[in-house]
Amino acid sequence: MSLTRMRTFIEVFRQNSINKAAKSLNLTQPAVSQHIAALEVVVGYPLFERSSSGVVPTAAATELALEIGDKLDAAEAALAAARARSMDITGVLQVVGHADFLAEILSEQLLPLLESGIKVRMHTGSREIVTSMLLEGHCDLGVSAYPVIDNRLKSEKIYTTRALPVASPAVAERLNNAADFTQAISEEPLLTYNLELTLIDRWLTKNRINIDRVTPSMVSLDLRALRKLVICGYGWTILPEFLCTEHLHSGKLAQLPSPIGTHEIDYYLIWLPSALRTARVAHARQLLLNQKTLSQ
What we know:
Elements: H1 3-15, H2 18-25, H3 29-43, E1 48-51, E2 54-57, H4 59-84, E3 91-97, H5 99-109, H6 111-115, E4 118-124, H7 127-135, E5 141-144, E6 154-167, H8 169-176, H9 181-187, E7 191-192, H10 198-206, E8 218-219, H11 223-231, E9 236-240, H12 241-250, E10 254-255, E11 263-271, H13 279-290
Parallel strand pairs: 3-4, 3-5, 7-8
Antiparallel strand pairs: 1-2, 5-11, 6-9, 6-10, 6-11
Helix pairs in contact: 1-2, 1-3, 1-4, 2-3, 4-13
Pfam families: HTH_1 (PF00126), LysR_substrate (PF03466)
GO molecular function: DNA-binding transcription factor activity; transcription cis-regulatory region binding
Family: Belongs to the LysR transcriptional regulatory family.
């Protein structure tokens, strides 16, 4: 069974489209169709059915993809990594992720790549932007605090940190001395990452703090903006520990009480499997995965 045909099959399966697979593989549509037809002859059953929006895998195709998909990705990544050790891998690496994590954590981990001659271009955005930038081929690697939900992408956890409720010392003292902490914190301005209150709700739920749904006073995808306002004495928020450790030690921030405990935030390195055919991308991914023990 041809490795090229298997890669074509996996790409069509993940894209649900012969046209998109052809673009990703830098092949013509007829060539992709021929690869699929030839593979169907080998396996002895149809792999896809036509639909108005592309192609739909048959049950047999789904079973085959589950059997060979990850193994094929691993083999291609290993081959690309091997090539990276014996060839010039300089060029531009496009990375997209949360602005605060890229600046505070990932930038230092990219230093070996920069020293090897690879140019890095950082782009920032939400989970949705990270996903679209990778799928559309605008970026090579992504980082997000959300697990991958699109089966066309792969991910692996590279960093874990605690999520801490913080405020300025004055605000923290006012909340701690309140007769009713729940009521007091519900009346304090809330600063958050998004309107869905992702980090906030997890902390409230874990600590069984029931407050009415509130409208945040400020929403920012860069958590450093929230940190700045909180330090200035305005409201409270939840921050990853790497963003507030220094300020907690210096007294600019104070940690609010968590009756039951805090929760953790996991950060994931994300990539499109086909991107690993580029030696530079495969090398960068492996380097970052090798440093994933640098969790706080």
